[in-house]
Amino acid sequence: MPGFQHEHVVVRSGGRSGLPVIIAVHSTKLGQAVGGCRVWRYADWRDGLADALRLSAAMTAKCAVAGLANGGGKTVVALPADAELDAATRRMVLHDVADAITSLSGTYATGPDVGTTPEDMAVIGERTPHVFCRPERHGGGGSSAATALGTLAALRAVRRRLHGTAAFRGARLAVVGLGSVGMRLARLLAAEGAELVVADIDPAKRHESDTLGATWVSPEEALTADVDIVVPAALGGVLTADVVPDLRCAAIAGPANNQLAAEDVAGLLHRRGIAWVPDHVVSAGGVINTLAVELHHESADEARKRVEAIEHTVSDLLHTAELQRVTPAQAATELARLRLASA
Questions:
Q1: Residues 327 and 196 in one domain
Q2: 182 labelled as ligand-binding?
Q3: Which of 151, 179, 186, 331 is most buried, by the most CB atoms less than 10 A from its CB?
């Protein structure tokens, strides 16, 4: 496999569920690999493997750029395209995940991702200690609030770069996706006076967005809206070569994973003068907070300061990118490479 850089990849059929359980450990150079557990539908289980490989590598970069003593990993349970899990089957799936994690002898720990919740982490935690973001009553806490706070910090840096101020009053942003992170972020932005365009595939979210004074549009319209910053906050792959010519924003920065449909889209955005801040940098608040509190036992205040420091990280990346005439993504990749090389 030319270019294969992962340290360890486990693909096994769950002993209880019979479903494919995939764990990709990309790197442990900086410390224990960490990454979410994704339970999602795929046309082919190998698509789930591709997700695990790509997202675990992104997690290594996220940890390195954030200055964390951790590497990157990812769990994917590949469900059939038409699958619906009842409670009993879901529990079996989660115990299968726990057994696969245990087989890695502590080199990897998991948390929530698409298709899983803190409650699911408590179930995984019944069979392995290598889990984080469990509910508070189980000694953990969700990551969504910290991810939203970290995204806000990143947007402050972008706003200052564009307009010389970190304040959001008078700024116009499009938040694409109103899930647990996107809705929290929209509330934070609205509270600071931002003018919002919002979208979600679930029309039921429209009522809640009305309380923010936001303009509701379709996800396609939000992506190409005439705004200062587009904030992708749902599933990835939305930034394609076809959509780049239609974009009317000055910058893109959001917490959604895997925003680029292909790596060369970053260059297309750069040539159009649109600053794209890599999603693994913008979305790092959740993992920074969780690892600081649950794995490194820091106080809530210490963890919050680490999350808010994302503003400085993004400011430095944008400055470096401009100075070296490269994309912010290239600047982030080089920073991660240097930190991994010095480990």
A1: yes
A2: yes
A3: 151
